[in-house]
Amino acid sequence: MLGLLRRITQEVTAAQSLSSALDIIVRRVRRAMRAEVCSIYLVDSNTSEYVLMATRGLNADMAGSVSLKSDEGLVSLVGRRAEPVNLEDAHIHPSFHYLKGTGEERYRSFLGVPIIHHRQVLGVLVVQHEEKRRFDEGEEAFLITLSAQLAGVIAHAEATGAITNLNANATPRGADFRYKGVPGSSGVAIGRGVVVFPPADLDVIPDRETTNPEQEIDDFYQALDAVRRDIRDASNRISQHLSVDEKALFDVYLKILDDNSIAGEVVKKIKEGQWAQGALRQVIKAHILQFDRMDDPYLRERASDLRDLGRRILSHLQEKAPNIVERFSEPAIIIGEELTASMLGEIPIDKIKGLVSVMGSGNSHVAILARAMGIPTVMGALDLPYAQLDKADLIVDGYQGQVFTYPSEALIDNYQQIVDEERLLEEEYESLKDLPCETLDGQRLSLFVNTGLSADVARSLDRGAEGIGLYRTEVPFMVRDRFPTEAEQVVIYRQQLEGFAPAPVTVRTLDIGGDKALPYFPIAEANPFLGWRGIRVTLDHLEIFMAQIRAMIKASAELHNLKIMLPMISNVAEVEEALALIRRAYAEVKEEGYDVKMPKVGVMIEIPAAVYQAKSLAKMVDFLSVGSNDLTQYLLAVDRNNPRVADLYNSFHPSVLHALASIVDQVKDEGVGLSVCGEMAGDPMGAILLMAMGYDVLSMSSTSLPKVKAVIRNLSLSQSQDMLNEVMSLSHAETVVQTMTRLMREANIERLIRPSKTTRVG
Predict the structure, then answer these.
(1) Which of 143, 158, 680, 739 has its CA 20 to 30 A from that of 607?
(2) CATH of domain 213-317
(3) What digits encode the pLDDT tens for the residues 254-272?
(4) Domain 1-160 belongs to what topology?
(5) Catalytic: which of 38, 287, 437, 677?
(6) Is 365 labeled as catalytic in the residue annotation?
(7) Which run of H or E residues covers position 699?
(8) EC number(s) on record (predicted)?
């Protein structure tokens, strides 16, 4: 059964159209189950009707032209229940409805299972027999398993462009296709899409029309010649260490390259209008599928040879292609299967209008970076056919987490009004730059910024930041190909400390592991978020920790505004050990003659263990800072980078709110500073609740700071406390957000954080 499932899903993945994919499914399922009929009905998103899209056994001419209403027939019953319906005699069931012209009147037994993707019923898969008999449990289990597999395969194939819409050849201008993701960074972007992708990865190469097929063909043949040279050179270098049979493997590679069928197929697709990289992807993946279907293990292994050759050819093609900077003649919306910080680093900031990532969530590091730069972003748009959107007109709605492709003029006009309102809000924020963050009744709240790059300093000061609540030292570690020296680190930290002096600068010790990796210090673990990360790494490597602490203290010479923060603390023993090492480093730096003071030291509260030990930790250090991102992740057991569970990640979950309030309650008499440096602090709704709880410092991205200040200055502390009291009794995160939205609207402050029209569009 597993082998059959694998072969069917592989064939569906390789299909070039929706109709051919559905035909593969009904043909293979009918044969596998020895059924007389197999049909697929898909839900029409506009009418909610179940349309017969493909069939073997019924009248195939009726496919696409007949349908069942959402409350009509056994198929819709399967959809409404979202569970299988297995009947010995379908005709006597009260929900039975005969579709004229299909020829199904003679079929009695019926088994229908729903095709579900992300809790949404996409359609129903049906098998039927003439005779009256109930399908057995094994047959039902097979169909359920298959439908679960196919739901994901079809959705992924649509997103990657492997399966296109039935009307893919039509120009969809003005179609207003909408795709749902999750908000990554608020704002609206209107513009053309540019698809970006990592190098030498065939799977993510998008479709793209070529205007110069002759040049593409020439580049392809040059890439073929380069790979042939590479293989011959490799063979010559190690030939003395190989037997005759082993050397023959290189000859196999060369024969594949000389095979006119593969090269000819690529050239044919280029002549049809596809660019060389896209043509190569299509041909290589089609041949890989053929190898994967073979029963012989040796022949199946040849698929890996072909994949390797495809990557080699692609690598040489990409050397000839224009670099990423040259592709941006004007600002564009960047689209990718999984956008990364390194990808963004290659693109001039002034050329980025918006970001859309198929993978990732609203708290992925790319989303955090986008918020810091003020770029409208949508993450986790899993069903977006991104490979087809190069140069397509798009709208990115970072407020609602929506992407519109091929928008109509009317929709563009609506969203342009939001852009205009955003510009007016920015002008209003500018007037607040030099004013204190103070409530209407005189409560003072300090607004700090989170930084990671040297460029963040000027941007943060321009926004009125009062200090740095979190400097991420892993950023300068991540952009190098080795550990920075102590002297290099002194220069880096000095920029941050000097830029904000005499205001405090909180420098976090190296926080790697989890989803933050150093290319020269790989950490491979089955469960990295519960593994070797943060303080656990640096305490195990004193040479890294001590060099970093000494560099921080040296950088603070004569400025005396350094605060050191320890990440991922789970017990007091870690703090005791770290404090002893910091005192040792301080003594060493003093002996070298530097004019320094012992810095204040604090810990991050970001795992449940630290929440329950907040009082004990407060007795040991000068301040506590809550990392709301990881705290939410660990409390809810939700990977914040996983789009499949992105809707479960919510910092307004009652358990998160109660944990945050508990920390304040535990340490209120300990005389320590208390701040929040996670993304919740930069959310005006979160800032209101955190201030009401008793947090006195909020640290956020520089782009979030003006919004938070605007809200706090138009609210009294007593109002915020009333809001907090109302939501702390609620048991659903969604209810908390809805209630806070209503209360902010009643207080006339919602208008300060988002254009009014965003509630009426999309």
Answers:
(1) 739
(2) 1.10.274.10
(3) 777 766 678 888 999 999 9
(4) Beta-Lactamase (3.30.450)
(5) 677
(6) yes
(7) strand 697-700
(8) 2.7.3.9
